[in-house]
Amino acid sequence: MGATNGERCRIFPTMLQGIAPHWKNQQCYLLDYECYKPSDDRKLGTEFCGKIITRNPNLGLDDYKFVLKAIVSSGIGEQTYAPSNFFLGREAQPTLSDAISEMDDFFHDSISKLLSRAAVSPSDIDVLVVNVSMFAAVPSLSSRIINRYKMREDIKVYNLTGMGCSASLISLDVVNGIFRSQANKIALLVTSESLSPNWYSGNDRSMMLANCLFRSGGCAMLLTNKQSLKHRSMLKLKCLVRTHHGAKDEAFGCCIQKEDEEGRLGFHLGKTLPKAATRAFVENLRVISPKILPVRELVRFMVLTLAKKIKINTSNYKASISSGGGGITKSPLNFKTGVEHFCLHTGGKAVIEGVGKSLDLSEYDLEPARMTLHRFGNTSASSLWYVLGYMEAKKRLKKGERILMISFGAGFKCNSCLWEVMRDIEGKNVWEDCIHEYPPQCLANPFLEKYGWLHKVEDLTNFQLPDYLH
After folding, report:
1. Beta strands 186-192 and 127-132, pairing class
2. Is 231 a catalytic residue?
3. Tens digit of pLDDT for each residue in 307-317?
4. Where is the Beta-ketoacyl-[acyl-carrier-protein] synthase III C-terminal domain (predicted)?
5. Catalytic entry in 85, 176, 254, 345
6. 3-state SS, residue 286
7. Is 244 an active-site residue?
């Protein structure tokens, strides 16, 4: 028999009471985060970079000129950091201890500071996700963290490798997935990269580029779906979209770890990388746009599309791709109607400028990514969080505003997510001691002034290197 009106009145409130708590538990909040800043004795000054380069016996004059051009055009300054074994002259002969020590230094510094500031005990952590792409130890790096901080026996652990520069948003997606099915949890997400064992000592130019771009760094984050901690949170995750083009051979092979012809291990960045990045970026934007833009902007775009008889909203991109071009053209959508801040992966100067052109961003919008690249370099998966730290240090983030994070990584992948700022954020972070210096008047790289003489040298065998390079 059917329920009476009176019974329905009693049933519906009961159903809503059951649904509401479940929906609340599906939220993902960022409680706090801590970016890693190595000690000053690990800074890569201009002269020291030159010494590292000249220590490679496999490089000739043309190779030196190529490296100089790559560094000068990279957008990276001379305040970035390298692993300790580089300063001991062992970048080409790394040991297992070097890689483990590099990770331990980061774990001890950043995780300790984060837990202390957030007043969270290691025993409160329910989920641990660690991503370090190019180093896998046994026991795992996540086990090292559990051992150091004496975490609970029933902690849920995920140790990710091989995910590339876009790994932090992949890890975030893992945490978010857990939060959707399990209530009242606190997760620790640790993202970094191991450079100690991954210096390339050959002369393949597609693999030499990685030496010029990547620098030491890392970030530890505390996330939760506890409603009782909502008032303490910094950000709330609104949506996250992952795009993976690994099924396409060209995309898969454009950014890959491999050996050169002489058997030297390195990280290859191919000429098809811009094309692969464009395709993944276009697809990612197509999916995330309806999730983050207001209806009026989507309607405006639809009307414009119909008026111009455009079959698909990414036709301009597709035309560029099909013609063999790797550049990114301007999107017909105005992303600023749904986003106040843009947190872009610091993959390099060209990456930042390409995404900025596509989304029609201003210099103000690109400033956090540009300054992060200049100060800290490309710290792989943790880069986004240094960019966020810049925004925080500049007191840009106000309650209710939205932040779009975009990252790229080997595979090839493009991942993005949208955050909502839960409160005005003005805390101290890794930028505290230098934020007053940014943005500087000029971002000119000092390498050109120091090593520009290389362009005038025709035969390095008959030329004496300066004393500071010996």
Report:
1. parallel
2. no
3. 665 454 445 54
4. 339-420
5. 345
6. helix
7. yes
